[in-house]
Amino acid sequence: MTTEVAKFDPSTYVDKVRDKIKQSLVDVIPDEQWDAMLRAEIAAFFKPSPSHSPATHSHYGVLPSERPSEFHRIVTGVLEEEVKKRARAVLDGPDWQSYWDGTRQRVGEEIGRIARENGHLILAKWLEAAIAQVIDHVRFSPHG
Fold first, then answer.
1. Could you write out the DSSP letters of every residue in 59-104?
2. Would the pTM of this model clear 0.85, i.e. be above it?
3. Where in the chain are the domains?
């Protein structure tokens, strides 16, 4: 016969006390009040709340004077992550990659298409910035 003493684990004691207190608090609240509190919390979860800043969100049916509901924020966060994941998957595809073909660098089909369809706009924007820098340099140059 062994007389080992069981090791005291304070975390299980804390968990048991917490659960007991939690259950006691729930037991003291009358059912009608408990139901009303739950309904209020659920409604608040789905309802936009007044904003303290002048312009928060003005899309998806949320007025500028309201903050989106907690539900809206959760759904938007989940959708944002999913869109990012899908966009990364598309951009990781061969059509969106550059690669070396012997000594020449080549681009995937989508990158080539964008360059062909928008090359004149891309070049114009690049030249605008370069020309503006030259003009600014001439205007503000002390030797001018």
1. STT--TTEEPPHHHHHHHHHHHHHHHHHHHHHHTSGGG-EEEETTE
2. no
3. 108-144
